């Protein structure tokens, strides 16, 4: 070692570098990496495992039970931290690495930062083929980690120690960049992990990363203001970018000053207090009647920080005004110009403020009054759906109502991901604080829920985290319930058992399909599965109980709030009952021909709705 270099293994250098990266949150300087999740195997235990052990008291390492689960927890941590902090995940080669790939898709689609550190084969190739190595008969450079390429914002394979230096610089640029933000994969050849190199000492200097806030182009700003002034029925669609930009105050100020109602996407929900008179709630396929009523004849949509996925736009059949203009206020040019959008490329916080200044005292005539009236109609329907009844099998909506009444929505974070619950929650859950609604609906990954709840709790330990999950998703990935108990991060899991994949069964029926292979009763079986979810949860160390009614659920939720350990509350629900109010058509293709007579009318409905789709994309 000299004064300007430090001799370290690649693994030691990687860990030391992560520890030197900082950020500022609410005026406090914090490590930007909150730790590393690790499941060790022969591809990482000797290299990264040794390096992490050396700093275990300064840089926490968390052990999980499933690689995908720990990655979901890391992703949820980044989401609940509004992308200001994030985590790393390390695995062995082969199946351990590939278990991360689905989660990488979650992070990539949702533009969330996480650092994946899978082990890889030997760079020197001397022991090939090693245990768990994927061999490509025609390409000697291929390994299992190549599967990360399409779901990583940046991918690199470290085959020499010095390659780590530029790779780390690129890694931090991607993880902290508002445009490029997403998962980074550094695939680490297992022999290289243990190789020593004289790294520049400057590589390990403390560096503080702050939020970059690009300002809009003056011509784009002027054009956007011109279009808004000409609009008679404008609507704002608020996406996740508003939360990540910390622009919630600017969004509300813009809406109030100019009288423009605000609808929210799955990612953008909680960016506005839904008690506000201008808050329309969710928009699109699982939207409220209020949001969709104003959207259907809107002549201008100000899309702020949203990627405008099909659930938001009703598969682009929701907005039916012939003169519709879409302004894409987005930090990412790719998203700003979707469907013929007029781009306003800028940070949401800065862009909303400057756009409001450019509009001056302009105000949309009548839109605020219309929003108030539509809200009143919607909440009447929503209250009816949420109300407790004595039904033998309650609806998802009634369970949501019980959770809201028993735990409140102000300090609670509700976590969910897939199935029918996201649709009901987006309509019916009314968050009042940023981050109170935590939904993974970009990839809609079944199994995210419990691990995601753990990650959200780690990011926001002072908030009450409620995970709502169906039996289908619970069965796919529940192991991090045990991890939450082990780490002392208490979450409450409300487990809704409708005995199968109820949401897809309903979609199957809507498309004219027969009830087939979704609900357990419609599957092939010799012994009908009677799963004891309470016993299962208790076996993983959680407290658990089953309730028989909505009244019992409310009582249990109130009583168990003080529990020190993660708690599972099970309730049987109806697989078919959904909130009829609100919502919009979704483009799921129905077969043109079939021997089954039910398909023909379903196809006819499909063609009728498809006629409203906008062709510009």
From TrEMBL:
Keywords: Hydrolase, Thiamine pyrophosphate. Residues 422-569 form the Thiamine pyrophosphate enzyme TPP-binding domain. PROSITE patterns: TPP_ENZYMES. Its EC number is 3.7.1.22. CDD domains: TPP_PYR_POX_like. Belongs to the TPP enzyme family. This is 3D-(3,5/4)-trihydroxycyclohexane-1,2-dione acylhydrolase (Decyclizing). It comes from Aureimonas flava. The lineage of its organism: Bacteria, Pseudomonadati, Pseudomonadota, Alphaproteobacteria, Hyphomicrobiales. The gene is iolD.
């Amino acid at each position: 070692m000299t004064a300007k270099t430090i001799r370290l293994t690649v693994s030691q250098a990687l860990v030391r570098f992560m520890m030197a990266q900082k950020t500022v949150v609410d005026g406090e300087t914090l490590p930007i990496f909150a730790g590393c999740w690790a499941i060790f195997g022969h591809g990482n235990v000797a290299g990264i495992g040794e390096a992490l052990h050396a700093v275990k008291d300064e840089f926490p390492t968390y052990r999980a039970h499933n690689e995908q689960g720990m990655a979901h927890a890391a992703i949820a941590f980044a989401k609940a931290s509004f992308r200001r902090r994030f985590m790393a995940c390390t695995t062995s080669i082969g199946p351990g690495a590939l278990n991360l790939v689905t989660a990488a898709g979650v992070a990539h689609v949702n533009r969330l930062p996480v650092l994946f550190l899978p082990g890889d084969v030997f760079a020197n190739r001397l022991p090939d083929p090693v245990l768990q190595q994927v061999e490509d008969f025609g390409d000697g450079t291929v390994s299992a980690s190549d599967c990360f390429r399409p779901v990583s914002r940046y991918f690199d394979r470290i085959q020499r120690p010095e390659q780590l230096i530029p790779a780390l610089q690129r890694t931090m640029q991607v993880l902290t960049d508002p445009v490029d933000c997403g998962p980074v994969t550094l695939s680490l050849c297992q022999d290289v992990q243990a190789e020593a190199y004289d790294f520049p000492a400057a590589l390990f200097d403390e560096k503080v990363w702050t939020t970059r806030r690009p300002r809009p182009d003056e011509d784009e700003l002027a054009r956007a203001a011109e279009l808004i002034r000409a609009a008679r029925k404008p609507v704002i669609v608020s996406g996740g970018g508003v939360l990540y930009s910390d622009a919630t105050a600017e969004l509300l100020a813009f809406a109030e000053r100019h009288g423009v109602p605000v609808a929210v996407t799955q990612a953008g929900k909680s960016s506005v207090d839904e008690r506000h008179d201008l808050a329309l709630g969710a928009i699109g396929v699982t939207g409220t009647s209020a949001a969709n009523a104003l959207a259907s004849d809107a002549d201008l949509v100000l899309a702020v920080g949203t990627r405008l996925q099909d659930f938001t736009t009703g598969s682009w059949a929701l907005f039916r005004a012939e003169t519709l203009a879409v302004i894409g206020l987005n930090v990412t040019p790719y998203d700003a110009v979707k469907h013929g959008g007029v781009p306003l490329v800028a940070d949401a916080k800065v862009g909303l403020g400057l756009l409001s200044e450019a509009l001056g005292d302009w105000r949309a005539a009548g839109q605020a009054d219309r929003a108030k009236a539509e809200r009143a109609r919607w909440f009447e329907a929503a209250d009816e759906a949420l109300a407790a009844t004595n039904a033998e099998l309650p609806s998802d909506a009634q369970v949501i109502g019980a959770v809201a009444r028993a735990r409140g929505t102000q300090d609670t974070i509700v976590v969910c991901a897939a199935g029918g619950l996201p649709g009901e929650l987006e309509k019916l859950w009314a968050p009042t604080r940023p981050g109170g609604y935590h939904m993974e609906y970009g990839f809609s990954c079944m199994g995210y829920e419990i691990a995601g709840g753990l990650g959200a709790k780690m990011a926001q330990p002072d908030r009450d985290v409620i995970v709502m999950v169906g039996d289908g998703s619970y069965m796919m990935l529940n192991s991090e319930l045990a991890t939450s108990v082990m780490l002392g991060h208490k979450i409450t899991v409300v487990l809704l058992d409708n005995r199968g994949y109820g949401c897809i069964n309903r979609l199957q029926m809507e498309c004219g399909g027969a009830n087939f292979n979704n609900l357990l009763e419609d599957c092939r079986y010799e012994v009908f599965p009677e799963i004891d979810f309470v016993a299962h949860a208790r076996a993983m160390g959680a407290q658990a109980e089953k309730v028989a009614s909505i009244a019992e659920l409310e009582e249990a939720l109130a009583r168990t709030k003080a529990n020190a350990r993660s708690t599972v509350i099970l309730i049987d629900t109806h697989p078919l009952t959904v909130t009829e109010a609100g919502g919009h058509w979704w483009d799921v293709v129905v077969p043109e021909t079939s021997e089954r007579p039910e398909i023909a009318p379903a196809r006819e409905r499909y063609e009728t709705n498809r006629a409203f789709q906008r062709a510009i994309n």
